[in-house]
Write a structure and sequence with these properties.
This protein is of the alpha/beta class and 390 residues long. It contains 14 helices and 15 strands.
């Protein structure tokens, strides 16, 4: 029987990574009272559901009394040895007092110690004087993470029922269309959101997906627009560019009329929702290298879906990618932003990444307009990577 003793870390992956890579029969986790109370249920559930650990035991330890810590740990060691168990100590994410205790007991019982570099999924063994070796004496396994498991690990849940149809790339043809719209959006990035709003407000299609408007009606709408989108020339340029991209068909703005058709319903939704194009482009880019990638992801805060009756607290993340064990939370912002909007986007991204990804999570903010140095510096302080798409 393989038994692993380890610290109960605040970081879920540190509690699980050994059992995701080796077949462990029993895991004994030591921690203070508050941590055991907050982590016990979700940690035990994950270990049994995904890792195949049969027995999970939590022991509360003193945070100040080394002799008390040693006494509790010796009890568990002696109990395991009476069952002829093979013992291994995992010090990944360990704290000072428990590190001292594990070091003393490892020497006393000649038990191997190891830890993981989580970001690299690298096992580091400290086996001086030990009789056994984890990597040689324990059967290996490879439990691959997916995004659902990562969010579950942190006590949340992906709510697929809230996923919007507009945040879907159905096939290769849809991918080509998105990339075509993206090339147009890049050229007119400063005006794209205003154009999108104008399309939504004034370019409604009929049941056949065709838009027909009198030129006078369009000009009046531009003139009355409360935004800065009031240029006939700019409107015509963007419509023509979308026609050349093949997503608007039979574009005409002459002889007193505006007329065109959306290639399909998806195109209409992309153009009406100004930010979706950047999100979908980012998704297409990220999924090339990610283990898994999703766009338009709704994350339920407490991991319990209450259905249509309400009660759910959730956050939407534009793009969520996974590379090995490390999730990347990606927010996409198109067009110009006010100072308040910039800071809000920073704090929102940081909050979601901390809640559902922990300390190893990466944060990426994708923008179409550059930020001034003061905001670039603030993003760096918050460990947020900025990517400016041009």
């Amino acid at each position: 029987m393989v038994v692993v003793f380890e610290f109960l870390s605040e970081e879920p992956i540190e509690n699980l990574i050994t059992c995701m890579n080796f077949k462990v029969d029993k895991l004994v986790l030591f921690g203070n009272y508050d941590r055991v109370a907050s982590q016990k249920e979700k940690t035990e559930c994950f270990l049994k559901r995904y890792c195949g650990v049969k027995d999970v035991l939590f022991r509360v330890l003193s945070e100040k009394d080394l002799q008390s810590v040693l006494s509790v740990m010796r009890q568990e060691i002696e109990a395991a040895l009476k069952q002829n168990a093979e013992l291994y100590f995992d010090i990944t994410g360990g704290e000072s007092l428990m590190l001292v205790a594990f070091g003393m007991l490892s020497k006393e019982y000649k038990t191997p110690i190891h830890l993981y570099d989580v970001s690299k999924c690298k096992l580091i063994e400290l086996n001086e004087g030990a009789d056994k070796n984890l990597s040689k004496d324990v059967e290996q396994q490879k439990i691959e993470l997916n995004l659902e498991a990562v969010i579950e690990m942190h006590g949340g849940k992906i709510n697929d029922s809230l996923h919007k149809e507009t945040k879907t790339v159905a096939n290769a043809d849809a991918e080509k269309d998105i990339l075509g719209i993206w090339e147009v959006m890049k050229r007119y990035s400063a005006s794209w959101n205003l154009f999108s709003q104008f399309m939504r407000d004034h370019m409604q299609a009929d049941e056949n997906g065709e838009v027909i408007r009198k030129e006078a009606t369009v000009l009046q709408a531009l003139k009355a627009s409360p935004s800065n989108f009031s240029s006939v020339s700019l409107l015509n340029q963007i419509l023509d560019a979308l026609g050349e991209a093949g997503v608007l068909l039979d574009v005409v703005h002459a002889a007193g009329m505006y007329r065109f058709s959306f290639k399909n319903r998806a195109i209409k939704s992309y153009l009406w929702d100004g930010g979706s194009v950047l999100e979908l482009y980012t998704y297409l880019r990220e999924r090339k290298s990610a283990t898994e990638c999703q766009v338009g992801v709704y994350l339920d805060w407490d991991g319990v879906l209450h259905g249509t009756g309400g009660g759910d607290v959730f956050n939407e993340i534009d793009v969520l990618a996974l590379h090995g064990y490390i999730p990347t939370f990606i927010s996409c912002k198109s067009g110009n932003m006010s100072p308040q909007q910039i800071l809000h986007s920073f704090y929102e991204l940081d909050t979601v990444a901390n809640r559902f990804g922990g300390k190893y999570a990466k944060r990426l903010l994708v923008l179409t307009m550059e930020l001034t140095k003061v905001y670039q510096d603030r993003a760096k302080e918050m460990r947020i990577e900025l990517r400016f798409e041009k």
